[in-house]
Amino acid sequence: MATSNDIRKGLCIEYSNDIFKVIEFLHVKPGKGPAFVRTKLKSVTNGKVIDNTFSAGHKIDEVKVITRKFQYLYDDENGFHFMNNDDFSQLYLNKEMIENSQFMKAGEEVTIILKEADETPLSAELPQSVYLEVVEADPGVKGNTATNALKNAIVETGARVMVPLFIEPGDKIKVSTEDGSYLERVK
């Protein structure tokens, strides 16, 4: 069992009958009163983010997790199917367990977080960015080039992305999976 002094970014803890991952933390030692740790926790099962404060020395239940690379195969109405590249076993995840799943395309490698004790899947993490082909883009309006004008585009996975006016259907672009923003055009 760990204490609040062991809190660090990426640590998985059991809290309030769920498993949370520490996204941000700050150790605070005010001039008056006891020290505490202010945290931002993200549920690995449903993706909700909560703010929580732990007093100094508070006992926390650390959850041991392991990560493995899986290949995304396909999705159905309930969730996603993945294959382990080492032993070719398949794994199923509910749609709620993956954030920004609209940027996943078949054959892409994702990192799945598993609980070490019984290897139950907790969540999946996409790469920081993905390369996608633009299948449909609004026409660029001439005269809108004085500023960083953007237009709607639909990529091969069906996701909508705001892109610069010079992007045309058939172009490959790099997209951030964190916020769905356009990063660059790929040659």
UniProtKB/TrEMBL annotation:
Superkingdom, taxonomy of origin: Bacteria
PROSITE patterns: EFP (PS01275)
Pathway the protein contributes to: Protein biosynthesis; polypeptide chain elongation
Keyword set, alphabetical order: Cytoplasm, Elongation factor, Protein biosynthesis
Residue span, Elongation factor P C-terminal domain: 130-185
Annotated GO MF terms: translation elongation factor activity
Gene Ontology biological-process annotations: peptide biosynthetic process
Pfam families: EFP, EFP_N, Elong-fact-P_C
Domain Translation elongation factor P/YeiP central: 67-122
Keyword Membrane among UniProt keywords: no
GO cellular component, one term: cytosol
InterPro entries named among the record's database cross-references: Elong-fact-P_C, NA-bd_OB-fold, Rib_uL2_dom2, Transl_elong_fac_P/YeiP, Transl_elong_KOW-like, Transl_elong_P/YeiP_cen, Transl_elong_P/YeiP_CS, Transl_elongation_fac_P
Record localization: Cytoplasm
Family membership: Belongs to the elongation factor P family.
NCBIfam families for the chain: efp, PRK00529.1
Protein purpose: Involved in peptide bond synthesis. Stimulates efficient translation and peptide-bond synthesis on native or reconstituted 70S ribosomes in vitro. Probably functions indirectly by altering the affinity of the ribosome for aminoacyl-tRNA, thus increasing their reactivity as acceptors for peptidyl transferase.
PANTHER family listed in its UniProt record: ELONGATION FACTOR P, ELONGATION FACTOR P (EF-P) FAMILY PROTEIN
Protein name: Elongation factor P
Species assigned in the record: Chryseobacterium elymi
